[in-house]
């Protein structure tokens, strides 16, 4: 019995050690297959590890934990409209284990969020073009397709050696950003060359020796789960709530507490053009192209001063923009700038995988723009 148990335990190790047949698929064909893989069904267990080095900011603890620690998920994926992802564990930056479960269901046109600790099922009403990151965003297929979808036409693609991931002889694709405004040095994706399903993603900062973010399937079966598996069935006694996007992500737009003056955002900031996102929440703007994109949003007055002070207390660089105090958080991949601007003034947050110079120029442009806007709008 002991010998049999040992043999069974050794099977995954033996399979992983088997030679991997190198795929002859071209980089262009592999990219196209990955982008077309959204309808490939699967069941999997995934693990993502991130080391962004972000401070723990008020009202953004879940995001900070997601981008600095290990996230384990089970996922059942039937189609883009029907899937379920269970975030079952989390490990913080200090290696502390946190048990629990928070699930995301995509049930047709409706999204449900299940909070195990609070025993609450929340239905989200309305589109979500801009929102806070969730664990499901780190799944290899979701992450890979999103990254390839925003890549610029000038970015370079090349093949990487195949490797075995979750039993798949996966073909490798490297994306190298062409511009110097982004902090991303390379994006490495491994996918099933037959279906294009991504099984591992690594993002490395420019000049870094190791990836800042790695997301990989540890177990994978490319089979279609049953509809009942991806449909939420709350048990008796489970609290049920319905909310709209602004209520879920109020930290993004500050609606309801008078945090911003409703001023229109400029078409350009520091040389970066505004990107129109249909249906996006008010007060949220995206600028730039390709991997040089960054987001701009006003912070709610209820948390803005605490966020700025927390960033400065955590060692963020102090900025002075047109006489206003700001903060610069610089990590190997993500850059964040908070700056006071406007009539009251409000505190605005810039964030993206871009160099500090990009955000500092944008912040300077915003302060100047709002100064002119308020002067002429009287």
Topology:
Elements: H1 2-17, H2 27-35, E1 42-51, H3 61-66, E2 68-79, E3 82-91, E4 97-107, E5 110-115, E6 120-125, H4 140-150, E7 156-165, E8 168-176, E9 184-191, E10 198-205, E11 213-221, E12 239-244, H5 245-248, H6 250-253, E13 268-269, E14 272-275, E15 285-287, E16 294-298, H7 304-313, E17 317-321, E18 324-330, E19 335-341, E20 346-352, H8 356-376
Parallel strand pairs: 6-12
Antiparallel strand pairs: 1-2, 1-11, 2-3, 3-4, 4-5, 5-6, 7-8, 8-9, 9-10, 10-11, 13-14, 14-15, 15-16, 16-20, 17-18, 18-19, 19-20
Please characterize this protein's 3D structure.
The protein folds into two domains: 23-228, Lipoprotein localisation LolA/LolB/LppX (outer membrane lipoprotein receptor (LolB), chain A, Clam), CATH 2.50.20; 251-376, Protein Transport Mog1p, Chain A. The strands form two sheets. Strands 7-8-9-10-11-1-2-3-4-5-6-12 form a twelve-stranded mixed sheet. Strands 13-14-15-16-20-19-18-17 form an eight-stranded antiparallel sheet. It contains eight helices and 20 strands. With 378 residues, it is of the alpha+beta class.
């Amino acid at each position: 019995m002991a010998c049999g148990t040992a043999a069974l335990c050794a099977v995954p190790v033996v399979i992983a050690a088997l030679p991997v047949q190198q795929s002859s698929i071209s980089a262009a064909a592999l990219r196209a297959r990955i982008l077309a893989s959204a309808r490939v069904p699967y069941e999997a267990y995934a693990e993502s590890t991130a080391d962004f080095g972000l401070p723990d900011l008020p009202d953004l603890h879940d995001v900070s934990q997601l981008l600095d620690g290990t996230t384990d998920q089970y996922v059942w994926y039937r189609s883009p409209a029907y899937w379920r992802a269970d975030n079952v564990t989390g490990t913080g930056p200090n290696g502390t284990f946190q048990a629990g479960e928070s699930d995301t269901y995509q049930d047709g046109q409706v999204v449900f969020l299940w909070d195990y600790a609070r025993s609450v099922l929340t239905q989200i009403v309305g589109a979500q073009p801009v929102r806070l990151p969730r664990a499901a965003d780190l799944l290899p297929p979701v992450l890979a397709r999103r990254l390839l979808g925003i890549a610029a036409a000038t970015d370079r693609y090349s093949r990487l050696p195949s490797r075995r991931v979750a039993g798949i002889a996966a073909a490798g694709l490297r994306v190298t950003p062409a511009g110097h405004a982004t902090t991303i040095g390379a994006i490495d994706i491994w996918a099933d060359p037959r279906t294009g399903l991504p099984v591992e993603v690594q993002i490395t900062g420019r000049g870094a020796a190791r990836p800042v973010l790695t997301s990989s399937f540890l177990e994978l079966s490319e089979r279609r789960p049953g509809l009942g598996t991806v449909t939420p069935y709350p048990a008796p006694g489970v609290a049920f709530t319905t909310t709209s996007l602004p209520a879920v992500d109020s930290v993004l737009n500050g609606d309801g507490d008078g945090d911003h003056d409703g001023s229109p955002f400029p078409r350009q900031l520091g040389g970066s053009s505004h990107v129109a996102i249909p249906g996006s929440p008010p007060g949220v703007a995206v600028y730039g192209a390709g991997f040089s994109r960054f987001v701009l949003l006003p912070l709610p007055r209820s948390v803005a001063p605490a966020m700025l002070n927390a960033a400065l207390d955590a060692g963020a660089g102090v900025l002075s923009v047109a006489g206003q105090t700001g903060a610069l958080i610089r990590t190997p991949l993500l850059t964040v700038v908070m700056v006071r601007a406007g009539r009251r003034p409000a505190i605005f947050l810039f964030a993206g995988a871009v160099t500090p110079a990009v955000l500092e120029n944008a912040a300077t442009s915003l302060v100047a723009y709002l100064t002119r806007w308020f002067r002429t709008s009287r």
